[in-house]
Amino acid sequence: MDKTQQSLPGLIRQVLGSLHAETVIKAQILQLAKNHLHEPEVITALLQVLPDVKDKKLRDEVMFFLSSLNTSRFPEPRILFDALLQFFKQEKERDTRVALLFRLQESIHQDQQLVDFFIELSATPNLSEPEMIAIQDTLANLPLISEDMAVAALEKHRNSPALLQSQALTLAEKCSRWGDKLFAAAQPYLDIKNDPDIRLRVMRRLADNKQMSDAQLITLATTLPDTGTNGIRYDLLELIKPAMRIPEIRLALANAFATNPSVYDDGEFDAITDMLAPYMGRDPHISNIMLESIKDLPIPAHRRKVLSLVTTRLKTEQVLDPLLALFTRERDESIREVLFHQVKALSVARHPQLVDVFAAELTEPGSPFRVTCAGLLANVAEIYPQVIPALEDVLRYDTDRELLRLCLDGYLRPGVPHQFDVLLAVVRNELIDTLSRQKALDAIVKLDLDASQQQALADALSGIKPNVLKYE
């Protein structure tokens, strides 16, 4: 033997791992090892040779001997735990596995990997009843653990099956206070894809954490669309409500609502909008966000409520552009009526953005607002060129007397260029009042007509009953 082999660590590696060494010799070497534990190299050699020991009786003896040692004897306790965990994975004997579980339980506070080991093992199928009892006893009786250990467990199992998530959460619940790191690690567990019971446990734990920071509340607000129902959102809102006076928190709530406003049921919708309502007239960011969210609300009653909350707290001029955009997109006639009545009182001369919207309504045959739009646009026909084509469209194709009268009054205002064919269409229209037809004829007379236009006028007048219109 060389010098290394003659040394005790060398003998341990050579003899205990050998298939050919006699049992008596192995027992003697193991006894020597027990007598020289003051030498760190001896313990290291035992750890290293353990996987190579094929004799079950000897392997169990080495394992139980090592596991009985105080971890202070090991230069690096993790080496011991690695060896014991590896031994457990290879061991088939149930009693040995159970004994090893209780040994690992004693050191669970010393190494995060032991926490993960017990959590993952709890979800392993085909465990014996004593093994399950040992695992549950370990997890249920964990000492007060550090925040870092709880964070590590939560982060590792954020996407794991529900059982593993539950065990990780059980671990985290043993922390007396949830700081920012633990709070952040628990946040993914509120996701709607997770088990409702797990989400409720997280919410209850957060509710117990009375002194939550502004940053934590903002983070909670941002999770609102993804937390699902089953009371989770109500609990979240109850946590946020006392802090609504803080601008950043209420802005986060408004943004979270607008991210996906269609996911909330009636109660959740009412709770959120009622929390934001007092600030809609004071905070322009909140008002704009809520107005913008209307387009994504599928329920008309919800759209109507948000619209009412905003418009009763702000002057129409302050939110005119968003209101017009909503009016253009809206399909519910009752809401369109609310929006139209909100903006029609404004001066078209002072708010040119109204012109295109009113002109579109005027030329839409099915719009209930045509007569009102005709009266509003007629007064500014000489100011906005886009009004004239809208008036001409009505004069060419419509038969409603009041509508035609209003449009003709606007069309005949000074400064508005007149088209012969438009005026001639009014003259020919026997369904409207005679006075309007006469005004159109008088306007034609003032035009410089070419021969074809004169002939067209003569043909039109020849078809009209005598003495209905005066033509000189």
UniProtKB/TrEMBL annotation:
Domain of life: Bacteria
InterPro entries, A to Z: ARM-type_fold
Natural source organism: Chitinophaga sancti
Protein name: HEAT repeat-containing protein
